[in-house]
């Protein structure tokens, strides 16, 4: 697994009627700052002097240190939801191996929007044009030699390029050497949090050791003293640097939130974690200043009061508590105390829930081996066969792991798995917000989309829409309105609903077995409403001043096109009705 995948897995997101879940009014965005976010109800924090570091720190923010979570970013004034709190160019950016061919290694733009040229030296990195290549050369000149050396000694072609973590550490070390170890740039890197001291008790010792060996090989070092020019005087220093990277690297995502690599930004990395974050890191792309994918923004997901801590998430918040906690302990070395993790056991978390067996609209906690008794939180009806639910969830997790593994090597097999397992979880009573159903729906949707060809069938399109709608319904039960993951999911659903129907006959087989999705003008109207809702959420999640990022701007164009199309439909229907009325009255 690449480091980008590793990180994105950690980040990175009920209604029985999906139609009604989507066609209601746009959920209002909470405008009150959340009391959960502040960890300084009693001031136990110290405002820190930046010592000339972090020149990009805006006056809106200050760095404070607490006993509980070390340094963090705090607001000095009220911040409105959807505002850009911080906009920065990362210190170091690398693409994950599977994106090296499809994206520019300088600006990280996808090759589909720009023809790319390959570096003739290493034959590994691609660029949009010579401008991008020149901009990257000061770092790539070291990397180019290292990549060639690595490929020459690799045991197989498949291992001919080191993973993104090794390449990112290489870039950090070359840049530190070139900028000088006493430069602000290098000091910011050196002061990033490391967990070297607690490593010996941690499950990630192996990852650190493996990375250390790989970095030494990548840099072409022959003696420990060779590391001194990088400011690394001992093995301990090297482990420290690796721990800093693992603790602070952030997944680089495309404008539609697909993980494509890793970045290191010491300033953004000062943000501490909550599983109920009030902020998020996005790479919105666009505008005059954000043409590089690697320009990152930290966006306020809800109003943040003056003097409140800015908190983002380090894990995928669609995961159940135990899985989130495991990652936070193993990778970040702390136990999360956020309100979601400390939620009373009497509150049912939609991530770990089963629908009420009496269909009263309530949910029951997902039964476990240790706690098989599960009752609906609303009507108290008990689940009659908890073992069946436990089994379904277990089989679902196994299928998810297998399908995720297979998706790039054998997409058909992966799709077969998701197609078969999803109905089992649904019939066991899992709502779309529940793990692993939500993750399976997302994967199923992407596998269906990947199988679209020029000749798309009505059934395939309708099945994709149903998967996308269930995915949106699941996310909506978990994530706050305005979360960019929700915005992107709504945009995808709206786009699918707006696709021309290949055979829109109301008597087609899919129509008889399911009332969703509708056909004709009703479908277009639903597409329009979904896109409007998506745009509203994207404007928050990617920042209002970014116009909702690249996806938000695309959605706006789709909305304009649909308005025209719906206008034609409305006129056509009105004309048809008027014609009928004229005929009935005997006029010609
Ligand atoms: C990316 S760094 C954040 C900045 C860090 N606090 C510092 O002083 O540089 C991640 C580390 O901060 C600490 N941290 C972040 N969020 C935390 C939380 N909610 N509770 C406790 N520690 C936290 C953990 O040590 C974690 O490994």
TrEMBL record:
Residues 59-315 form the SET domain. Residues 24-45, 500-522 are annotated as: Disordered. The keyword DNA-binding does not apply. Residues 506-517 have a biased composition (Low complexity). GO terms for molecular function: zinc ion binding. SUPFAM superfamilies: HIT/MYND zinc finger-like, SET domain. It comes from the Eukaryota. Residues 29-43 have a biased composition (Polar residues). Residues 104-144 form the MYND-type domain. Signal peptide: none annotated. Keywords: Metal-binding, Zinc, Zinc-finger. InterPro entries: H3K4_H4K5_MeTrfase, SET_dom, SET_dom_sf, Znf_MYND. This is SET domain-containing protein. One of its GO terms (cellular component) is nucleus.
């Amino acid at each position: 697994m690449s480091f980008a995948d590793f990180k994105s897995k950690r980040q990175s997101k009920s209604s029985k009627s999906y139609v009604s879940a989507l066609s209601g009014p746009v959920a209002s965005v909470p405008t009150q700052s959340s009391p959960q976010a502040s960890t300084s109800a009693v001031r136990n924090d110290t405002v820190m002097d930046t010592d000339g570091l972090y020149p990009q720190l805006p006056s809106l923010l200050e760095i404070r240190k607490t006993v509980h979570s070390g340094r963090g970013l705090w607001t000095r004034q009220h911040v409105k939801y959807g505002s850009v709190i911080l906009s920065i160019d990362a210190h170091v950016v690398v693409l994950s191996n599977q994106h090296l061919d499809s994206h520019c290694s300088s600006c990280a733009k996808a090759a589909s929007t720009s023809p790319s040229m390959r570096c003739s030296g290493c034959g590994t990195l691609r660029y949009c044009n010579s401008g991008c290549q020149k901009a990257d050369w000061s770092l790539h000149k070291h990397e180019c030699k290292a990549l060639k050396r690595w490929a020459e000694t690799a045991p197989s072609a498949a291992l001919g390029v080191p993973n993104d973590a090794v390449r990112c550490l290489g870039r950090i070390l070359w840049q530190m050497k070139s900028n000088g170890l006493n430069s602000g740039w290098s000091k910011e890197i050196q002061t990033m949090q490391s967990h070297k001291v607690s490593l010996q008790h941690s499950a990630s010792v192996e990852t650190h050791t493996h990375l250390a060996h790989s970095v030494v090989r990548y840099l072409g070092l022959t003696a420990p003293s060779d590391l001194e020019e990088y400011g690394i005087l001992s093995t301990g220093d090297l482990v420290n640097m690796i721990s800093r990277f693992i603790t602070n690297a952030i997944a680089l995502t495309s404008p539609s939130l697909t993980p494509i690599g890793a970045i290191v930004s010491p300033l953004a990395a000062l943000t501490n974690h909550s599983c109920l974050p009030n902020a998020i890191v996005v790479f919105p792309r666009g505008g005059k200043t954000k043409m590089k994918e690697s320009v990152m923004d930290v966006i306020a997901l809800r109003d943040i009061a003056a003097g409140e801590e800015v908190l983002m998430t380090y894990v995928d918040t669609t995961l159940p508590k135990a899985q989130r906690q495991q990652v936070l302990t193993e990778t970040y070395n702390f136990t999360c105390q956020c309100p979601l993790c400390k939620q009373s056991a009497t509150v049912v978390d939609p991530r770990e829930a089963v629908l009420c067996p009496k269909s009263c609209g309530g949910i029951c906690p997902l039964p476990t081996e240790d706690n098989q008794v599960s009752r609906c939180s609303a009507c108290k009806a008990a689940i009659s066969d908890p073992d069946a639910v436990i089994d379904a969830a277990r089989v679902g997790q196994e299928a998810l792991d297998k399908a995720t593994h297979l998706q790039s090597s054998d997409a058909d097999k992966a799709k077969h798995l998701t197609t078969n397992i999803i109905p089992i979880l649904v019939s066991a009573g899992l709502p779309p917000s529940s793990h692993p159903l939500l993750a399976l729906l997302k994967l199923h949707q992407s596998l269906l989309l990947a199988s679209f060809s020029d000749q798309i069938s009505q059934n395939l399109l309708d099945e994709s829409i149903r998967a996308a709608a269930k995915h949106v319904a699941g996310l909506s039960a978990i994530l706050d309105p305005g979360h960019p993951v929700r915005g992107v999911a709504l945009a995808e659903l709206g786009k699918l609903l707006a696709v021309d129907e290949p055979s829109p006959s109301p008597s087609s087989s899919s129509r008889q077995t399911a009332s969703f999705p509708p056909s004709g003008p009703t479908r277009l109207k639903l597409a329009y409403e979904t896109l409007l809702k998506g745009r509203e959420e994207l404007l928050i999640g990617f920042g209002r001043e970014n116009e909702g990022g690249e996806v938000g701007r695309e959605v706006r164009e789709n909305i304009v096109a649909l308005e025209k199309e719906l206008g034609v439909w409305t006129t056509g229907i009105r004309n048809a009705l008027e014609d009928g009325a004229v005929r009935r009255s005997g006029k010609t």
